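JOB MANIFEST
job_type = single_chain_structure
chain_count = 1
residues = 159
[input]
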Amino acid sequence: MPHKQVKLRQTEKSDLEFFFQFQLDEEANYLAAFTPTNHTDQKAYIEKFTKFLTDPSITMQTILIDETIAGSIAKFEREGDAEITYWLDRNFWGKGIATTALKNFLAIENTRPIFGRVAFDNVGSQKVLEKSGFVKIGTDQGFANARQAEIEEFIYKLT
């Protein structure tokens, strides 16, 4: 897929309905692993992410393929560190879209260092981070709601 079709724009409240539907996908949820306990509660999801739209410490962008909403990408802060998060609708997996979106996002979000965390077995997301210049710097253990188990996650850093 040609990269010129991958575009980012500031997330709008109406985009949240699409994002909510994307994260209901059970396979995607399993791979993401670290998800909210109430991921099927649409009202809670929309309320939470609506607040993020006006939070100055969060940069939220919508990933578009032509004019179709394909996913989301954001920078947020966790314990004083900038972190990256992204979610792509499963229909768009394996086409280089997440990698292109992340590279485009990093061109407009210049906070460094910036970290990425990914479940130990989410190879696709690990490749996205590595292709974008992130280096694996360590591991952590955490409770993954989507798996109802403690799992290892890899920590990546871009300087």
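[summary]
Residues 117 and 155 are 5 Å apart (CA to CA).
The first strand starts at residue 6 and ends at 10.
exit_status = 0
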